[in-house]
Amino acid sequence: MDLEEAINKRRTIRRFTQETIPSEILKKLIDYARIAPAGNNIQCVEYVIVESPEMREKMFPLVRWAASLPKELRTPESGREPTAYIIVLVNTNIKKSYYDFDVGAAVENILLGAVTFGIGTCWMGSIKGDKIRVLLDIPDFYEIKHVISLGYPDETSVIEPYKESFKYWKEGNEMHIPKRKLESLILKVV
Ligand SMILES: Cc1cc2nc3c(=O)[nH]c(=O)nc-3n(C[C@H](O)[C@H](O)[C@H](O)COP(=O)(O)O)c2cc1C
């Protein structure tokens, strides 16, 4: 799969088959993040992989799904939950500020890498950080930034032309994601 295909195919996925992701693939995704750009090349982004069924079950209530959808469509039903999570941390002993862009670059490498393995992802900022810290025994000098939920997709998602709203919607088992037109993004070419 070339880069353009991976970029086009990457859509947020929130329903998953229960086939597990091999540990080597999860580590490979973090290897992609490892070499992402970082401000001043100071590399402060670290990760926890959650893959065991026991810990997955405990992680599931600590993330919140699809705020734009009606309540009954937000959360994956039983048997369609993620089969892995990557917790994205900032080691504040390494960098104290200006790390959000590093996090974004690292996460995008993970999301695009996942596509090439046929894995769906959901980048999640709406998380219960305090509870995740206790559950995974994460020391205080780590900032818990985001969670990436992963699994083999059990729903589809398509891009729609943006009209009046950024709100995405769901019809049956398919997500519809409005994206702005290219021309509307380029302020000027000089
Ligand atoms: C920084 C960030 C935080 C997000 N947080 C959540 C979240 O907490 N829960 C969720 O279900 N989706 C979350 N998303 C996924 C977005 O809703 C999704 O990217 C958006 O609807 C566009 O869909 P697409 O990824 O398929 O292009 C987040 C995405 C980003 C970039």
Small-molecule components bound: flavin mononucleotide
User: What strand order characterises the main sheet?
Assistant: 1-2-4-3
Overall form:
globular
CATH architecture: 3-Layer(aba) Sandwich
Q: Would you identify the CATH H-level superfamily?
A: NADH Oxidase
The average pLDDT is 98
Termini separation comes to 34 Å
Q: Spell out the helices and strands N to C.
A: HHEHHEHEHEEEEH
Q: What's the number of extended β-strand segments?
A: 7
Q: Helix count, per DSSP?
A: 7
Number of individual domains:
1
Name of the level-1 CATH class: Alpha Beta
Helix content: 25-40%
- β-strand percent reads 15-25%
Structural overview:
The structure is a single chain. It contains seven helices and seven strands; from the N terminus they run ααβααβαβαββββα. With 190 residues, it is an alpha+beta fold. The protein has a single domain (3-154), classed as NADH Oxidase (3-Layer(aba) Sandwich), CATH 3.40.109. The protein has a four-stranded antiparallel beta sheet, with helices on both faces. The protein has a three-stranded mixed beta sheet with strand order 5-7-6, with no helix packed on it. It is globular and about 45 Å long. The model has no long low-confidence stretch (mean pLDDT 98). The structure holds flavin mononucleotide. Flavin mononucleotide (FMN) binds next to strand 3.
